[in-house]
Amino acid sequence: MVQGGIAVLKRIVTAGIALGALAAIAGPAGAQSFDARRLGMGGIIVSEVSGSNTQNVAYRAVPKPGKSFAGYNAIPLPLGIIQYFADPPEFDPDNPNFNVFQIANLLGQSPWTLQLIEPEELSSDIIIDISKNSLAVDLGELQRLFPDESIRYGVSWQSPNLEFGTPNVFAGVRPQTDGRMSLDLDPALQQVLGEAAPVQPNSVYGATDEVQAQTAIAFTAGAALPLVTAPDAPEGDPRRGGFAVYAGARLKYLSGIAFWRADAAGNFATGDTIFGTTTPIDAAYQADIRDASDPKFGAGTGVGGDFGVAVFVDKIEIGVGVTDLGSTMTWKNTDLKRIAYDSVSGNTTTEELERGVEYKSKFPVTGSLNVAYRTGPMMFGGTLDRTSNERWIPRAGFETWALAVPLRGGVYLDTYKQLQFTAGSGIKLGSIGLDIALATNSRGITTDRGLELAASLALYGPGGSE
Length: 466
Fold this sequence. Notes:
- By secondary structure, this protein is mainly beta.
- It has helices at residues 2-26, 36-40, 52-55, 79-86, 100-108, 187-195; strands at 72-76, 113-117, 127-131, 134-138, 151-157, 162-165, 169-185, 204-228, 243-270, 281-292, 300-313, 316-342, 347-362, 366-375, 378-386, 392-402, 405-413, 419-429, 432-441, 450-460.
- 13% of the residues lie in helices and 52% in strands.
């Protein structure tokens, strides 16, 4: 029966590696920006960067920069889509070229960036040490997939954000999608997979996993107003001097389209002898799966809001933005079923627990705190982002202009707590321009860095030229 135990063990290890890889590879997905200008500055938020009012609604009320290159709108170019269609991964699990790490890696890559250098693929061997009453699994480099903490992945999409009106009063519409996964290993299993600790007799090893995905259309209305203006600021631009305060709020009505959630738990138990004459490992798995029974526009309803404030004090800018505060969905009709498996019977069962019941879910609260200082042609800034997977990302960056050519650079600390570097430049030609950015990343399952390229078209308004 040793072979049967090894087969069960392989399934456990393979499932654990797949879940860990999906979370670890995709975890830092929100660390990058679509806009090449912002990416070149380490992803910081400042008032003149295109799209800053999506994360801090107060920036809608801040006046446009005066006669400078600072303020313009950017249109990101989807370089990553071209790369994807040129060399797509294999999705068929029966194909010998199928690779779960390549599939998971898609979640960590932006369709807007071109991967110039990808982190090296894992080449570590897996060593399983077996004797009659001993079992140890050494995953080598794969151990980093199982840290001594919760493994979280989260991504939220709220674009394109289409808003109409004045800078002070506006309304709009935008899609809103949220996806989250949280994998927690009990301490004993974490030590087995993450530290190569030996499996002990008469012990239970378990893990829990929560996955949720939902999408809705947000209809918004809001206002952003100056609470204190800076009439003496050069050209009325508070970035160049004086004292000013702006605040804004964006209220949302959410019309839900689809919802899916799974709460799963699995474990395996060892007997008196790890490998004896009977099946050595008993495994069990249970997942409660809830989904909207009839996905469509209006399948759920909800409300929420975005709020922000921006303060300017003598060329220093401070902004605080919060998105999806209180954003709660009520799904009218959801179904709940339970899927269970145990290795003793070898059976998988499906049981319907609820049908057509109301269920509430929440969109994750995200936010940012940003600070910037300007002196002459130079701008220095820093941002602390709270992401949808409840991680904090610190960033720092700068920008300066030499005639019609910008120079940018930045750093940020990703969710692996590894320092990443960015740089950018471009060119302005009349009312249009081009921005490019290079950025390192560590989205693979090793700590090696990759390198990506982003590009954006720049559209300058009447005040954006000299």
